[in-house]
Amino acid sequence: MSQYFQIHPRNPQKRLVHRTVEILRDGGVIAYPTDSSYALACTIGNKNALERIRRIRRLEPHHHFTLVCRDLSEISVYAKVDNTAYRLLKALTPGPYTFVLKATHETPRRLQHPKRKTIGIRVPDNPIAQAILEELGEPMLSTTLMLPGEELPLTDPEEIRDRLGNQVDAVIDGGSGGIEATTVIDLLSSPPEVLRVGLGDVSLFENA
Questions:
Q1: Which of 32, 123, 189, 194 is found 20 to 30 A from 3 (Cα to Cα)?
Q2: Vertex 68, ends 64 and 73: CA angle to 5°?
Q3: What does the alpha-carbon distance between residue 175 and residue 100 come to, in Å, rounded to a whole number?
Q4: From CA 176, how far away is CA 196, in angstroms rounded?
């Protein structure tokens, strides 16, 4: 069975955050809260953990995972950010947005779009997610916790534990989660293109 950590949604306990990060560094998969919904995550360099997430969600081989980053400076390590993209990222992060950008050489090729060489990146506005990222010191590879055949992500951490207790290494209980996905914005288009309308406000792009 997975470990189950009840972490305060506004003031995460450092001891539990540290234990969560130890699990990630040991090659584990976690279920954790974000500012949009619960998600699955592992470290970016662990292929076995990545394949476990694929099996849990029964994902296609070319499914695009998201790099979840702490801040703008971390984004710039893994994605190419020009001045226009920087201004938008600064205005919209942290928040419930996923941005499509050109990947840098620091991003493993298996995580990039095979043709466009892009990567989806986001900075969540969630204290628990931010505390984990700060302790980890690098981005997490992440995808929404939506199980095969279901139309909405799981929202109840106790249900997540009951249903995935043998498939993930830790469930982070940060309270009830949301069901709406992030807004996805392609920053390679000119003007930037909204690929999916989700929780994030798209009014900045309506008159672009």
A1: 123
A2: 120
A3: 29
A4: 24
Measure the CA–CA gap between 183 and 75, rounded to whole angstroms. 17
Alpha carbon distances (Å) from 52 to 47, 118, 158: 9, 23, 21
Among residues 160, 197, 74, 174, the alpha carbon closest in space to that of 126 is found at 174
Q: Name which of 92, 67, 60 is nearest 183 in CA terms.
A: 92
For domain 3-199, give the CATH number: 3.90.870.10
Tokens at 180, concatenated: 């709406």
**Cβ burial, residue 60 (10 Å; 0-12/13-18/19+):** exposed
Q: What is the CA radius of gyration of the chain?
A: 16
Instruction: Kindly list the domain boundaries of the chain, sorted by start residue.
Output: 3-199
Tokens standing for 90? 């600064």
For residue 42, the Cα-to-chain-centroid distance in whole angstroms is: 10
The pLDDT tens digits for 165-205 are 899 999 999 999 999 999 999 999 989 999 999 999 999 88
Q: What is the distance between the alpha carbons of residues 1 and 66, in angstroms, rounded to a whole number?
A: 26
CA 3 to the chain's CA centroid: 20
> What pLDDT score was predicted for residue 61?
80
Residue with tokens 């003031």: 11
